[in-house]
Every structure is written in structure tokens, then in C-alpha cells.
Amino acid sequence: MNQTIVTLLPHITSIFLVLRICTSLDTISLYKNIIDGETIVSGNEKFELGFFSPGSSRNRYLGIWFKNTSPHGVVWVANRQTPLKNTMGMAKLDNQGILSIYNGSGMVVWSSVSIVSFTNVNPVAQLLDTGNLVIKYLNRVIWQSFDNPGDTFISGMKLGKSLIMGRELYLTSWRSADDPSTGEYTVSFSMEEGRYLQVYIKKGSVIETRIGPYDGIEFAGLPNYKHNPNHMFVDHKEKYFQYTSNRTTIWAKCTLNPSGKLEISRLNNRNREWMSDHSVPVDYCDNYGLCGPFGSCNTATSPTCECLKGFELKSPQLNLDNWTSGCTRSKALDCGPGEGFLKFSSMKLTDTQNALFSAGLSLQECEVACKDNCSCTAFANPNMTAGGVGCLLWFGDLVYVRVYAQNGQDLHVRLAATELSGMLLVSQYKRKGVLILVISTSSALMLLFAVTYACIKKNKKSRMKRRGKRYALHKKNADVQIEDLDELPFFSLHKIAKATDNFSVNNKIGEGGFGPVYKGVLEDGQEVAMKRLSETSKQGLEEFKNEVICIAKLHHRNLIKLLGYCVHGNEMILIYEYMANKSLNTILFDETRSIMLDWPKRLNIIHGMARGILYLHQDSLLQIIHRDLKAGNILLDEEMNPKISDFGLARKFVGPDTAAMTRKVVRTYGYISPEYAVHGHFSVKSDVFSFGVLVLEIVSGKKNKGFSHKDHNDNFLGHAWRLYKEGKISELMDATLHGSCNVSEVLRSIQVGLLCVQQHANDRPTMLSVVLMLISEGVLPQPKQPAFFTGESDNEVQSISVVDEEMITQLYAR
Asked: Is 581 within 8 Å of 637 (Cβ atoms)?
């Protein structure tokens, strides 16, 4: 490489060369102009930024490379499509944060594009010790070279997708060793929603090689490469793969060369030379689709390609050196009861383009899901780090399967009943050391197998029919019976998996103490929400039973409607009506979304919650204390009408206001009443306290938990009380409500809220009184001092009382 040097000037003139060290560690700040003259080095002297000419070319490019290595490891090129023809070029950082490269005539040949636009600012460019060139304004990165990858992938870079910007980051090869312009080859990460991570090397639009899938530890296409501390990240903004290394002494890079080969190299620190560590494709079997559909490639056999067991060559008359047409089934599938799966071990899992992934299913559940879907052709658990959880389901042809001598995975392929039973018989005889041809006997055995299986299925269905709506829940070796649920529909796990796209992460809409919640669409098009009990859930069988019995017997416009449930082995799932605006806390405490809640909507939410709680306490078949009222459990439909949800901790009570005690208090901090938190006492007044907190939060738009004020140390309730005593209670109101509120309604709601959060339970009103106070215009009582709670933890509060929890009246429908 013919290297020349670059620097930046603090002013527009290019007479003086200045290099200014930034106060932040391991970075160099670059200001205003860059000319072909001095080298800019990262803070730890690992990378250099400058103009260079690659190979024998005389063209000039602005780029970044590893310092003092042989050959020079160029990791990024700015003007790869528009080279400079001489050394008269210059780069300039303007006051809008845009870095541009000018030729000797003053024409722009390349410019960066910022994610935001500014004018008359003082931006700063920095070459970080990661090799990333960033442009900042007020410590905010507005452009970076890592968002514009070339042919090389290094530690800290991301390849994948920005879900917000809709942009994909991938590698593109150089056209030649002398020409860094975009070549024919790309390396891209397949990260479509509901699909599983794998990597493609493509020539144009044609797939040449597939690396992966990713098993949580390494890529299946790199079975012998162990120097790959890789990570995949997914959130609501990004979905990307990243290589990271905790050892700063190891320098590594992954480069897509002009011939389409992906080279992984490490630097020899003694002689500063790059050594090839691994390359892809590795061998003949790495050629994509070499053996066609249902064909398997194995470099240890001859011929290299062969059909999977249960399949035969689709076009046997063709030359055996050409397998692109692949294989077809020896026995066609009919979706009969005898169909099953044959396990293939030490395999590179087939291409996942036509597969769906569910992170929450075990291998056994994965098999059930595949068998229940007649279009499913194979299944596997691709993730080696999730404790056996994770399910890939393939639909259609299996393309690009190969055998590894080691470090392969298990692939379970669907076969016809006759094919599978024949293989089982052969296997049994082989284990005994005898192989006998028994055509007539095997036919009879296959017929017997089919008849026996059909009888077992028929008897099982008959038993289930006789048992009606009574199911045993088996979880952690505990049995709990749920009876008398004739009014509540039962859903099969297959229907639920289908409705949620196999519990796709794309359909996940929330998560609580019970477990994750998924959006689903039933076969009739109805949108539903499905709450799935997690293995690590702090709630369990009793809460599940509570939830089912409570909501099944309770019907009110301000209570969430339970549409059905599912019990399948360890799976326990509740199906609810779908609430378009999710929970109150997702809107109320969001600065941008809270404007959706004007005062009429907030008042409607307050009134709706009050009516719903009054129904629970007084008018329902089951008189219920909810015990977990909070903003996260108030759901909002498309018109912002509130519905109370999550009855896992609810308790029945007898009489007008019977109190009870519990040894274990489990509630969300910030909404729990003082007598419940300290002594374990709970009653209808516990729900009244939580309602009061909610009212004050709705009016103010502020969270009770974590509240702080610059002028005092009071918590949220203390702050509201202070304003009330000082006659400034209107200052508690959310500033966004000034244009839509009725001041008297706001003040009345605040006073009702303060009455509900009074220290002593006896001082608090009943929900009937609350409803009447909210809708009337009479004079309200003066509230007494509220309960004051402070604390740092946002975990659930637990305390012990001296009274046994068996004193609590248990829930039974009537």
C-alpha cells in the first residue's frame, strides 16, 4: 500500500497542520479540514486514518487501517466508488456535521449522511480505538463509519438490521486487490422476523455459501473455528450480530475477498503479520444447494451426495455428479396417525429460509407442534445455550444439509408411517446381529402397528370426552384440579401455536410476573392476547387456577374478558380479548404518548376503574379483593376504556368488609397499602388504597415509584399531601392537561385520591362511596395524612405476619 498522511485543521485554511488530543480517553479529535499530509492515529495507536493507494493503484482513498501490520489491514474506505486521481484531495467537516471529500478542483466526490440535521453547530470527529470514525454533536453520535461497512468485519461492529430505520448492514467485497469499489460478493445476515439467524455469501443475488445457523455458541458453518466470541442482540430498535473480544491483545478481522471467500485472520504480535485462521467456503460441501432438496453432503463418502434415509434420487437417469434436482420421498406423506420422525445426528441444520423459530418451546413440544401441522417436514432445537429450549420447524423442501464429523446437531425429519415402521424393524434386527427378509410378516406388523395406534388414539379421545372439562395440571410434580369450566372454551396447543406464529418474538407484546404475553389471531380472524406461564415465573398453579376461576365467573365492561385456556403438559396458557392500547403505564408514563390521554379520557379511566372495583367488592358472584391493582394491570381498548386484568393474587371474602391476613405479601411496590405491607392484613380497603395511588398518578402523569422533587425529599404521596396542605394542589396536575381539563373535576379527583390513600384503613372510603363522590358535586370530606412509603427497590415487597395464610377464604365459584 502506498500510504500518505492525513490531518485535520482547526480552521478552514490548510496552511497549518494541527493535531489536537481530546480530553476523553483513547480517542483523537479531528477538526474542520483534512488534507493529504499527516496520519491520524487512534488513542491506543491501534488504528490509523489517512489517504492511501491500494496495491499498484495510483488512485487515492480516505480509509482506516490497522497500524504497523503486514499487509496493511484496511477496515474501511470512504470514497470507494469515487477515487481521487491525485494527492490534491481534501476532506472537510462542516458546521452541519457532514464530512465531505473534495478533489483538486473543489468538487465533492463523497459525503457522509447524518441521521439528523443541524445548522451552525460545532461538531467533532473522532477516530476511536475500536477503529470507528464517529462524528458527534454534544456527545451525540450523528454519523459513524461502523454504520457504513465495507469488506471487513472487526470487533465492535454490527451486521444486521435497524428495525426503526429499516436499514440493513452487510459486507461487500472489493472489485479487486487494487480497486476497493463494490465487488460482486456480499455477506448478509438473515434476520427476518420469526426466522433463525444464518449468514449467506452471495454473488449478486445467487447464494454461493451458507454459514449457520447460529447455535448460540458458534456458527454451524464454522465447526472447527473456536476463536469466535460472538453475540446476537435483538431489541425493539435493532436486530444484529456482533463479534466481541475481551482480550485487547488479540487483533482479528474478517474480510470478504474479491473472489467471494470469507477470510478470518489474526495478527501475529511478534512479527506483526496477519495469519489466516479460517476461511469459508471450507470444502466442496460448502457450495450451496449442491445436493439439492433432501440431499445430504458428506466429504467423507463417495459420492459426496446421497439422499436422506426415506428419500430417493428424483432423477436417477441423470449423471450422479449433478444432484441439483435432489431427492424425493420414497413414500408420500398422508398426515396419518402413524407418521413420525427419524433423527439424523451430526448434521449441519438445513437452510432456515422456509423455517419458523419459537424460542419458548422444548424439544418435546417442538415435536408435537410439527406433528400437528401436516405441512411441517422437520424440526430441531438449534440453540445449544438455552437448556434444551428452542424450536425450529421446517416447511417444504430441506435444502443444504450436510454431515459433520463432529460438532453437528440433531435433525428430526418427518417420514411416512410405512417408511418409519420398516426402518424400525430393520434397526431391531440389526441390533440382534441378524437381518432377515420377512416381507409378509413385516406387512402384517405394519398393519398391526397402525390398528393398535388408532385404537390407542380412540381410547384416549374417549377418556378425554368422559372427563369433560376436568383437567389435571402437572407442573413441578404438583397436581391441581380445575373443575366446572363448561362455560370456558378449551384451546389446543396447536391452535395457540398457530395463532401466535409459534410464539414468535415478533408477536410478543409484554411480560409480567406470570410470564410472556403474545398477540394472536384465531382462525376466525379474532385478535386475542395469550398469557403463557413461564418456567421461571414467580406465580404458578394456584395463581393460574385463581385467574381462570375469577375471570370465568366475573363479567363486567371494566374487567378483562377471558376467552379460553389451554393446559398441555407443562404448558398453561390463558387467552384474553386483545386490548389495542396495551396497559395504562405504557401510555401514561411515556412523554410522547401521554398526550393521547387528554382529561376526558383520564377521567373516563378513573370512573371505569372505580366501577370495576366496586363490582368486584360488592356486585359480583364472587366478592373479590384484587390485591394487585397497578397501572400495568389496567388495560386500555382502542377507545381508551379501562379494563382491570391479572387476578392471579385475588382473594374471595365473605361479608361486607371481612379482613384477612397472610404470611406472604406479594405485591408491586408503590401501590401496596401500609397494613398489608407491614402486618399482612388485607381487605377491600387495600384495593381502595391502590386505586387512590392510581388516581393521583393519572392526574399527575407521574409514577409513584421512584418519584423525586428538586425542592424536598418527599415521595410522591408526600408531595401531593404537601401541595394540598399549602393550597397548591392544582400544581399536581399534568401540564399537558391545561387545554382539555375541567379544573373542578381535576381537583375533585385529586381529593378523592387523597381520601383513598389515608394512613389508616378505617379512614378510607368504600368503593361505593368513591363512585358516588366522583359522580356527585357535593362537599367532600377533608383527607387525613396519607401513608408515606419510601424505598429504593422496585422488587416485590414481602413481609411475614404471625397469622397462618390458611385463614384466608379460598376461591370457589358459586
From this structure: yes
Q: Which helix (H) or strand (E) holds 521?
A: strand 516-521
Residues 730-757: tens digit of each pLDDT:
999 998 898 888 899 999 999 999 999 9
Instruction: Provide the grid cell at 73.
Output: 489491514
Quote the CA–CA distance of 158 and 171 in Å, as a whole number: 11
User: What is the per-residue pLDDT across 463-487, written as a single tens digit (0 to 9) for each?
Assistant: 444 443 333 343 333 344 455 455 6
For 575-591, the pLDDT digits (tens) are 999 999 999 999 999 88
Q: What is the distance between the terminal CA atoms of the chain, rounded to a whole angstrom? A: 85
209-230 tens-digit pLDDT? 988 777 766 676 555 555 554 5
Cβ-based neighbours of 216, under 8 Å, separated by 6 or more = 382, 383, 384, 385, 386
Over range 54-73, report the average pLDDT. Answer: 90
**Measured distance CA(799)–CA(680) in Å, rounded:** 7
Q: What long-range pairs does 768-777 form, CB within 8 A, spacing at least 24? A: 768/614, 768/617, 768/618, 770/610, 770/614, 770/688, 770/691, 771/607, 771/610, 771/611, 771/614, 773/748, 774/606, 774/607, 774/610, 774/748, 774/749, 775/607
Residue pair 22/29 in contact (Cβ under 8 Å)? The answer is: yes
Rounded to two decimals, the pTM is 0.52
Q: What is the pLDDT of residues 647-658, one digit of tens each?
A: 878 887 755 445
The CA-CA-CA angle for residues 302, 308, 313, to 5°, reads: 75
Q: Where does residue 56 rank: exposed (0-12), middle (13-18), buried (19+ CB within 10 A)? A: exposed
Which domains are seen in the chain, by residue range?
Answer: 1-148 (2.90.10.10), 149-282 (2.90.10), 286-431 (no CATH), 471-577 (3.30.200.20), 584-797 (1.10.510.10)
Rounded to an integer, what distance in angstroms lies between the CA atom of residue 747 and that of residue 724? 10
Number of Cβ atoms within 10 Å of the Cβ of 463: 9
Report the distance separating Cα 189 and Cα 153, nearest Å: 13
Transcribe 163-214 into DSSP letters. Answer: TTTTEEE-EEEEEETTEEEEEEEEEEEE--TTS--EEEEEETTEEEEEE--B
pLDDT digits (tens, 9 = 90+) for 123-134: 888 899 899 999
Share of the chain above pLDDT 90, in %: 32
Decide if 813 contacts 552 (C-beta within 8 A). Answer: yes
CA–CA separation, 515 and 533 (whole Å): 5
Contacts of 446 (CB under 8 A, 6+ apart): 417, 418, 421, 422
Strands annotated E in 272-397: 273-280, 295-297, 305-307, 311-313, 327-329, 340-348, 355-362, 376-380, 389-395
Quick one: pLDDT at residue 95? 82
* Catalytically annotated residues: 628
- The confidence score (pLDDT) of residue 132 equals 93
Between 108-117, 149-158, 255-264, the lowest mean confidence (pLDDT) is in 108-117
Q: Which three cell numbers stand for residue 184?
A: 460482486
Q: What is the dihedral of CA 40, 43, 44, 50, to 10 degrees?
A: -10
The rounded distance, in Å, linking the Cα atoms of 42 and 126 is 8
CA distance 164 to 177: 35
Helix (H) and strand (E) counts in the chain: 12, 52
- Host H or E run for residue 50: strand 47-53
- b/e for 62-77, b at 16 or more Cβ within 10 A? bbbbbeebeebbbbbb
Beta bridge partners, 358, equal: 391
pLDDT 10s digits, 517-553: 999 999 888 999 998 876 655 556 667 777 777 777 7
What gap in Å lies between CA 811 and CA 814, rounded to an integer? 9
Residues in the chain: 814
Question: What pLDDT score was predicted for residue 27?
Answer: 38
Tell me which residue has cell 454459514.
211
Q: At what angle do helices 743-756 and 716-725 cross, to 10 degrees?
A: 120
User: Rounded distance, CA 507 to CA 628, Å?
Assistant: 26
